[in-house]
Write a structure and sequence with these properties.
Strand content: 35-45%
CATH superfamily: START domain
CATH topology: Alpha-D-Glucose-1,6-Bisphosphate, Chain A, domain 4
InterPro entries: Polyketide_cyclase/dehydratase (IPR019587), START-like_dom_sf (IPR023393)
Organism: Piscinibacter sakaiensis
CATH architecture: 2-Layer Sandwich
Protein name: SRPBCC family protein
Strand order of the largest sheet: 1-7-6-5-4-3-2
Pfam families: Polyketide_cyc2
């Protein structure tokens, strides 16, 4: 089983970072790896069970992900991949945010576990880690200069 863990301190408050990252349907507006993101069937982007559909910019096909949990109290969300144009299975990821009181910033951690053929594991882990790091960098880009 492949495992990925990425953490970062972001130059945004907890409220800013959570408000930005909790929107499950907004991905295509800011993440440079993806485009054309939308929530299927007109469901709300914060409704557990909703499915996000988006296209990978580098020609990597499309993905469908289902929101499994979202908590505004603990600043966590969990989701799974329903479809990916890659030989990955049983992919589940979770993102969690915590306040950093020094400097009024935010700590984020994001992890995933999934099955992938052994020969492709290193590349898959690097790709997922880069994707998570970029999410955190997008928060910095959105709020870091405004503070």
């Amino acid at each position: 089983m492949a495992r990925v863990y990425v953490s970062a301190v972001m130059d945004a408050t907890l409220e800013q970072a959570w408000g930005f990252l909790r929107d499950f349907g907004r991905l295509g507006e800011y993440h440079p790896f993806f485009r054309d993101a939308y929530i299927e069937d007109g469901r709300a982007a914060d409704q557990v069970g909703c499915v996000r559909h988006f296209t990978v910019r580098d020609g990597g096909g499309f993905l469908r992900e289902q929101l499994l949990a979202l908590s505004d109290d603990t600043h966590r969300c969990r989701y799974r991949i329903l479809h990916i144009d890659a030989p990955w299975t049983h992919y589940v990821a979770e993102m969690h945010l915590l306040p950093v009181t020094e400097g009024d910033r935010c700590f984020g951690e994001w992890w995933a576990e999934f099955e992938v053929p052994a020969a492709e594991e290193a590349a898959a882990v690097a790709r997922v880690a880069d994707t998570f790091r970029t999410f955190f960098a997008c928060v910095d880009a959105e709020f870091g200069r405004a503070r």
